[in-house]
Amino acid sequence: MLKVGILGATGMVGQKFIEMLEGHPWFTIEAVAASERSQGVKYGKLGKWKLSTPIPESVKDLEILPVTPEGIGQIDLVFSALPSEEAGPIEEEFAKKGYMVFSNASAHRMDEDVPVLNAEVNWQHSKIVDEQRKRRGWSGAIVTNPNCTTAVLTLSLKPIKDEFGIKRMIVTTMQAISGAGYPGVASLDITDNVIPFIKDEEEKVVLETQKILGELKKPAEFKISASCNRVNTTDGHIETVSIETEKKTDPQNVAEVMAKFQSEPQRLGLPTAPNPPIVVRYEDDRPQPKLDRMEGNGMAVVVGRIRKDEALEGIKYTVLGHNTMRGAAGCSILNSEYFKAAGYI
Amino acid sequence: MLKVGILGATGMVGQKFIEMLEGHPWFTIEAVAASERSQGVKYGKLGKWKLSTPIPESVKDLEILPVTPEGIGQIDLVFSALPSEEAGPIEEEFAKKGYMVFSNASAHRMDEDVPVLNAEVNWQHSKIVDEQRKRRGWSGAIVTNPNCTTAVLTLSLKPIKDEFGIKRMIVTTMQAISGAGYPGVASLDITDNVIPFIKDEEEKVVLETQKILGELKKPAEFKISASCNRVNTTDGHIETVSIETEKKTDPQNVAEVMAKFQSEPQRLGLPTAPNPPIVVRYEDDRPQPKLDRMEGNGMAVVVGRIRKDEALEGIKYTVLGHNTMRGAAGCSILNSEYFKAAGYI
Amino acid sequence: MLKVGILGATGMVGQKFIEMLEGHPWFTIEAVAASERSQGVKYGKLGKWKLSTPIPESVKDLEILPVTPEGIGQIDLVFSALPSEEAGPIEEEFAKKGYMVFSNASAHRMDEDVPVLNAEVNWQHSKIVDEQRKRRGWSGAIVTNPNCTTAVLTLSLKPIKDEFGIKRMIVTTMQAISGAGYPGVASLDITDNVIPFIKDEEEKVVLETQKILGELKKPAEFKISASCNRVNTTDGHIETVSIETEKKTDPQNVAEVMAKFQSEPQRLGLPTAPNPPIVVRYEDDRPQPKLDRMEGNGMAVVVGRIRKDEALEGIKYTVLGHNTMRGAAGCSILNSEYFKAAGYI
Amino acid sequence: MLKVGILGATGMVGQKFIEMLEGHPWFTIEAVAASERSQGVKYGKLGKWKLSTPIPESVKDLEILPVTPEGIGQIDLVFSALPSEEAGPIEEEFAKKGYMVFSNASAHRMDEDVPVLNAEVNWQHSKIVDEQRKRRGWSGAIVTNPNCTTAVLTLSLKPIKDEFGIKRMIVTTMQAISGAGYPGVASLDITDNVIPFIKDEEEKVVLETQKILGELKKPAEFKISASCNRVNTTDGHIETVSIETEKKTDPQNVAEVMAKFQSEPQRLGLPTAPNPPIVVRYEDDRPQPKLDRMEGNGMAVVVGRIRKDEALEGIKYTVLGHNTMRGAAGCSILNSEYFKAAGYI
User: Fold this and answer.
1) C-alpha A155: how far from its chain's center?
2) Which residue segment(s) compose the domain that C19 sits in?
3) Which residue of D has its CA nearest to B285?
4) ipTM for the assembly
5) Rounded to 5°, angle at Cα B200 from B194 and B206
6) D237 is catalytic
7) Contact flag A184-D185 (C-beta cutoff 8 Å)
């Protein structure tokens, strides 16, 4: 069993890491670290747990440690659920000291030598880590996962891009409140409401999608337009996607290509890899966040309503994924499993 | 004062007609009609009122009448809030007997000689009524308004089409539960959920938008793609819209053209006409259903987030309108005011 | 393995029976029965599944059968999730033909020779079944469970009544929408709202509580006042309870007595019995439906805020339980396990 | 017209003061004051307005002033919407400098010489202000209103206490999120949830109710038990109330006494006084927050479900009132109207 630590263990994503790592066949949580005001307290005594699953027994008695390599001590890898505005230098410090850092923070995503990894989509990007180490003189490394919206979106785009090519894509998202962390969205703002704006989200969707679906150091060049909205759901981002493909295709074809899609994590049988990674539904009214977000233990994306897009003379569909699982903690865990299987850890 | 009647007066749209006609300067409600099981009861005793405004005193003592010309008796015009599957022959019967019927039902919207009127957008289509009367041998006539989504959408599209032309348009909607009537959407279906499907809605958006923005008997030919979703809001449909225009333009230009838009209802000073009909907001996070749906007494649409659409090399924005006011009862009332001002009544 | 059937298998409670019986160590579902319009269809093809867990594979291929002994065929026991207004004669027919019927319907709850069983509270009432069989000439029998609110309430009252006696009790409930079945509560009625009334619920709470906490054929005589409200939660009924006890006590005492409560299902180690059956929380702000309803796999009740009641000079607390698990399907399953352990099946 | 100022004008209650004072026949807003980080900005430019009614034009151009007598300048009275933890010394400073302060903060409510005024209930308590001025050497004075829950509750209790006497009372509340201010309740905490705890609320309900329904300096002595819950509604607190009366009575009697209740604000015809102050509903399922909170322009309380309480051998009912109108800003405004009518201003 590898010993893992969680940086930013008390926030929503930190809690999700703990929940998803419970019972993991390869990893055992040895260290939880958080900001000063929680340090020294036992995790189970903190009173911030917001998930409906109980705190795992194995974590209850861990004392909350400082977010430094010295504070954490000797372990095999760390997951970072730090706020993006704090994560930058802290993650670098860990990588420098030899830790593999799997980060959900956006701080380093756009660094040229840091992969934004969504394992089924661009597992080959993992090798940029060699350059990262050499260039920065680190024995560890930083591996990021995309923002929640992009994680869900790119997984659905991957087989389409491979099979038909993508010329342009328009996406409108309806995102759950858990995506904003805790306390996050005020209830007075979202009850009986939609908020048609999420700060920096549309920019991230464009840039991260192009990086993930591109080649190493060469982002994909197709044109992307994103409109991101917050809606009153707890978990599960749902997105309408319109695509003009390079090669002409039709909904039936696209459904088949998506339904049969397999990738490296499935071939390697990674513990957190959903199989199939893309679940295609043929009912008129699916996917739905409440009914479908836990598909593949929260790691699959569910696609439905695949049909012609009359305006683009292409195709359109609706895709759903669990934003704090596939879109955050789970994506990071899957990435780390890939790195281990690939011999990096 | 003209005497008006309401067909289907007990449903959600019927109630909205009653609420919006209270205190109207030209119209007074003389007759309320509904299905057999309510007939003979006083409206105020029915116990089906679902609005947070109280039942107007003037309507409380009206006895519910049969939905027939004989049942209603001699009045000046009727508003139809009948279910679309029942409305067809009933509305024809009224028109034949000389009544002007302003209908929210979809039954006759696609009839070539029946206007789908959204007064600011295509008031000139009113004159097709002359042909309708002649062809059908009626002394009355049927005038429909568009479905709620299309009413909101086409009002926002009108100044763009006039000024820049539209080549293609992609719209994703997030629609309120009141759009499905009562009892409509089950709470178990929509709490903590989004339903990515509304029966027949996308087809209506395409066909009605093309009819309204086209010329008489010659629908507009630009390509439309619609994805319609139900979200957990009570009132107010919000839509993300991406457009490729004929003439190149930019967000600033589009904002100006929308903000200064005026049309015939404003020039005529019709009682229910909002002024301005399109309210442009410049904050990042507007429009929002809860905060903006009552703009212009529920009759204006609110547009925000006007920006470049990178995928279409055009523009995109978010538009909001009150679905049971601008999108249903209010639109019908405004249409009837236009017909009166134009001398048809 | 005993073969079980589910009557009314397509409704919300029927679905919950199926979900909770998946993987059961003693029971395997052999028959699913429902009203005529579903008969003959495979369960997995029906399209009515509303739970977020997927339909168990083992049930997908079962054909939906008629709700008659002949239709169901030879099995060991049936669970009834029939609507209360239909359940009466159907359940009698099954009992007459030799089936043990564990019913969630209210039809027979007030029959003197039918137990309303909440296993931890009144397992001894099971023996009235002997009289039921003799008097009615049945080889089978009917065993009911209480309505959801009462199931949760009486489990929390049991140790208090045993230890301190109860003179009077006042309860106000805040009940989840799933308690009304599907389609049940209209979203327009409950969004941003509380409905201070649930038909027949307060009467049931009073009569069923007195029957369950009384002796066989001799209902408890303490006075009960109930106010039942529907609130906008999906699952989990939460109730504030004020009690004047016979013997004086204090919150500390009551907490201890509740926390250490064990009963026959725990002693027998029944598969569905939660242990502990009552979870006592000491934080100010627990129990909460979202966080605590799954305690004990949805079979425990969670009690918190135990404090003095100044008006009754007694004690008060808040109790929560999962209404479709502890309060419906799960209670029936636990009852059937007790009957099996007691040798009736 | 009297010139009024609002302290804490940018928060939720401050906004409600502004909304409710728009068009007031006696008062005109001359000054808005708030904490340092908003000072100097025009109110209309602040971007914090959360109400669905637009910001009144008359307030848009007011510059936000410091919360000091010098900052506010010469005006006739101030309304305080300050946070309770800051309000204490600031309100004293204003009273000392000669201002009448009508405060929604709890800071001074329990001061013996400060009235907690709910005008229909205890208008006579206003005269304690004479003692306050004398004792403290102030030319101004502080007048508080009760917390939102108590304002609604005591208005419903007043006619019962007068007519039948009250021996004990048990109340369970279901309170709206707007009661917690902004940002207040996190959406992750309240979506699909009930929170069975509101800090200090139960203590306030007991003490303020006894003070309001008592005589000057002699709180009422009947026993009160309160359980306060936060539910997922935007506005409107709804409460179930069980009462043992001194004199025996019945639901019919209580309904009549409540329905015909009139008090000093109604007799004086104060502008904000609802008439009737208590609206009695006879349907099974009323009052409901969404449908009834705006009764009497948000200033009436609505009572329904009046029935026997079997446990107390008394009566029980459900009462609803708008928490930020009757329960906060509106109550303060009504109090100030009474003071003006009584010649204090």
Assistant:
1) 10
2) 2-147+329-341
3) D47
4) 0.96
5) 100
6) yes
7) no
